[in-house]
Amino acid sequence: MDARYKSRDIERRSLDVDGLKRSFLEWLVYSVGKDARAATRRDWFHTVALAVRDRVVDRWMDTTRSYYHEDAKRVYYLSLEFLIGRLLTNSLSNLGIMDECRQALDRLGLSMEDVVDAEPDAALGNGGLGRLAACFLDSMASQGLPGYGYGIRYEFGLFEQRFENGWQVEYPEQWLQFGNPWEFARPEVLYPVQFYGRVEEFRDSVGERAYRWVDADRVLAMAYDTPVVGYGGDTINTLRLWSARATRDFNFGHFNDGAYMKAVEQKILSENLSRVLYPNDATETGKELRLKQEYFFTSASLQDILRRYLQHHTSFDNLPNKAAIQLNDTHPAIGIAELMRLLVDQHALRWDNAWEITRATFAYTNHTLLPEALEAWPVRMIERVLPRHMQIIYEINAKFLNRTKAKAAGDNARLSRLSLIDERGERRVRMGNLAFLGSHKVNGVSALHTDLMKQTVFNDFHEEFPDRINNKTNGITPRRWLKQANPALSELITTRIGQGWISDLSQISALREKADDVVFREEFRRAKRKNKKRLAAYIARQTGEEVLVDSIFDVQVKRMHEYKRQLLNVLHTIALYNEMRDNPTVSWVPVTKIFAGKAAPSYHMAKLIIKLINDVAKVVNHDPSVHDNLKVVLLPNYNVTAAEIIIPAADLSEQISTAGMEASGTGNMKLALNGALTIGTLDGANVEIREHVGPDNIFIFGMTADEVNDLRATGGFNPREVIASNPSLKRALDMISTGAFSPDDRNRYHPIVQALTDGGDHFLVTADFADYCQAQDAAMQLYRDQEEWTRKAILNTANMGWFSSDRTVNEYAEEVWDVHPVHPNHEGEGYR
Ligand code: GFP
């Protein structure tokens, strides 16, 4: 072997500073093709990422080999979204070579921060649902669970948000523009996916009725694999994302006609399938393209799963013992009909046998009760796009309803609620019902949400299948959300209780006793202050606004949505502003209101709320009469990278959704783990956070889910009365409605005022306002006593151990998937 090759071979495995440095130089020259003098920050990022990737590959192959060797049961997490963010720090940190890498870069005269900052943020998701999928990948790999993520390799992730004159403007997020060093293209892993066409009936070899899907358009799904590095680097799992490719035979006809441009157009159209991530948006998602995306990645994933299974098995009977497929929301629910099609049409299984296998293989997670977010595709559309699937859905439905009919004895209303087809108005396929029926387990994402699922959307199904619904309260990975995002606090924690918490977050409870230690409190505050300085600098860079590091950093970061009630926070901001102006001699606790979040492009109300926040910021921040006691900032383009800077710096965490509407929340968990005190309603996982951190260490306010339900049911709520009886609310609303924040367009906020008054205030902002303001006052008073505040902040961090996604994933592994850790054999490799 060439000596030079041999030396590179050793180089690419070494984990010490010298080895890293040498391999950076090698990569820069031989793969990026640059001289050190000419290299840009981006070149260095690619160099470092490729060198780090080298250190992962052997272990990745060992892991995969071990799964095959043990014929382990695997989990397949099917998700239309994976909000993974940047991977460099994540990989370095999980491999345990962060310091070595920093030093190696240092010796090359480079700053780690600059290199890290050159990585684009992989924004392949909208919010909580996609980020949860990313946390689960980290937790599965960190615990040695054989888990695969399957999704779409969107060319454009969630749009980049900018503010122009205070309005949100969307720009394409071109994260792949300069290539992606983490992924491996797999041009040979290619599956055909069909659309349109028609179904032909025929008699099979034993004379039974059978079906084939013919005259369909074909697109190819090509795999791209990204290694998922578990903590400690022992297990490296795979995230497989599909990219659409036109088939080769696609355009022959057109070429023969000389219609070259038409042929190229067709190719582009078919590759549009993986072009862009849909924003979470009720009207936009009505598009046929979205349905095609869902089917595209689901079909490719199932074909891949069956191919892998068949390498070791000849009959499908064992499939449920070898594969657990988790549906992340209903987006991949068409997979239930697709697996039936693959088993019955392609592999000639009997229907009942195929159905048993399908149900035992799938499980479904529901993430929302909002009716507008429950997918229901028009029957006409499915008939046209996926004709065979529509037949299969009818068949599943007929069999189920027939069986149920016998028991339901004439209760037609109940049968029509259970049906997979919604017959009211345009006929639609209820994907939630399909997912429920085709799964052996169905879960909600917090205790409250799961209860509400049983009582509302899936009430009839729950009666029908009382053992199927279970709860799996969400979690977050402590690796990214504490260790990486908050080095100041995580180092402090490690010096006091060791590093066991990183892989077993329950150990963080050892910090409880430190809450009474005055020295520890001082250090805890110092860490928070460091993070606040970092955020203040970020705010200044992003918005030009200078904020006081010693003010309360009051943070609301999440998608902009009426149910999340950013408006409630804005109204409190205006009320506080008025109070400060009215009482200039009072010594106020300075407050910085920090917002960030994207609005779906066609969600006009949410976009108007963004404009309002920016307008309020303009007035408040330039009013000398509040003496810097109040600042309002709305940070643009909230994404994982921004969250990593904002969350560790927060003092107060806003979790103020209308009770019963937020399924769980995970930002609430990240903030509390980083020592922010929550101000929140008894909604989603806030309920469980209160149980864990203790009612004295959280500010709970507002109506409960039951109260909201009763109030809405009786129709007895009149926002006008509430407003009239609360002068500070009335004044705040009057200012909005008379144009105090929009002198250039005094009617701009008419729709907001209208929604809160004559519109009936569906989200009960006015109803919770007074109570919310009281909770805010209590928080401000407490903040004056820094010792007490810090004590409570420490107790938050110390009591959040249960919210690790390791715990969540273990619960799924034991109670839903029945999968077990595999310990990869690394004997063959030599770099340790
Ligand atoms: C959704 C729900 C959240 C929940 C996440 C993850 O998030 O309450 O925490 O899913 O289960 F709304 P979004 O995608 O809507 O942010």
Q: Would you give an account of this structure?
A:
By secondary structure, the protein is an alpha/beta fold. The chain folds into 3 domains: about 100 residues, no CATH class; about 375 residues, 3-Layer(aba) Sandwich (Rossmann fold); about 270 residues, 3-Layer(aba) Sandwich (Rossmann fold). It contains 34 helices and 22 strands. Strand 13 and strand 14 form a beta hairpin. Helix 7 crosses helix 34. The longest helix is centred in the first third of the chain and has 29 residues. The radius of gyration is 28 Å and the shape is globular. The N terminus is likely disordered. The structure holds 2-deoxy-2-fluoro-1-O-phosphono-alpha-D-glucopyranose.
List the helices and strands and how they pair.
Layout: H1 3-11, H2 17-32, H3 41-69, E1 74-78, H4 88-95, H5 98-107, H6 112-117, H7 128-142, E2 147-152, E3 157-164, E4 167-173, E5 184-195, E6 198-203, E7 209-214, E8 217-229, E9 236-246, H8 252-256, H9 260-271, H10 288-310, H11 319-322, E10 323-328, H12 334-346, H13 351-361, E11 362-365, E12 376-378, H14 379-385, H15 387-408, H16 412-418, E13 421-422, E14 428-430, H17 431-437, E15 441-444, H18 447-455, H19 459-464, E16 469-471, H20 478-484, H21 487-497, H22 518-543, E17 552-557, H23 566-582, E18 591-596, H24 604-621, E19 630-635, H25 640-646, E20 652-655, H26 667-673, E21 677-680, H27 686-693, E22 699-700, H28 705-714, H29 719-724, H30 727-738, H31 750-756, H32 765-784, H33 786-798, H34 805-817
Parallel strand pairs: 1-2, 1-10, 2-9, 10-11, 11-15, 15-16, 17-18, 17-20, 18-19, 20-21, 21-22
Antiparallel strand pairs: 3-4, 5-8, 6-7, 8-9, 12-14, 13-14
Bound molecules: 2-deoxy-2-fluoro-1-O-phosphono-alpha-D-glucopyranose.
Protein name: Alpha-1,4 glucan phosphorylase
GO cellular component, one term: cytoplasm
GO molecular function: glycogen phosphorylase activity; pyridoxal phosphate binding
